[in-house]
Specification:
With about 110 residues, this protein is mostly helical. Helices cover about 75% and strands about 0% of the residues. It is elongated, with a radius of gyration of 21 Å.
Length: about 110
């Protein structure tokens, strides 16, 4: 038999339940914005194909741009801790609110 040595594990870097929920919420919202961008692009292309009025160029450019920005902010939120992660999550909310307000609610 060989002798074995127990090694100590590094302490786990856990995140609080609130932080996990915040990241989950902002990640879901970013994914929803991606889905919305895909739908707007699909509707625009379908309308162009059928030669009927559609969403126009501005929404077809702005929705994917907002989705990319939200995904980049969410990536920061997922990879960082503390205030930076919270600010990145807030950026996701602001990007989403700006896109919805500009193209859907106003």
């Amino acid at each position: 038999m060989t002798d074995t040595e127990e090694l100590e594990l590094a302490p786990a870097r856990g995140r609080s339940r609130t932080a996990r929920r915040w990241r989950g919420l902002t990640g879901s919202l970013a994914a929803g914005l991606v889905a919305l961008a895909v739908l707007v692009l699909g509707a625009g292309l379908l309308c162009a194909f059928l030669d009927v009025p559609g969403p126009g160029a501005a929404p077809m450019i702005a929705h994917p741009a907002a989705a990319v920005l939200a995904l980049l902010a969410q990536r920061v939120a997922d990879r960082k801790d503390g205030v930076l992660a919270g600010a990145a999550g807030l950026a996701v909310l602001l990007i989403l609110a700006g896109a919805l307000w500009t193209f859907w609610w106003a």
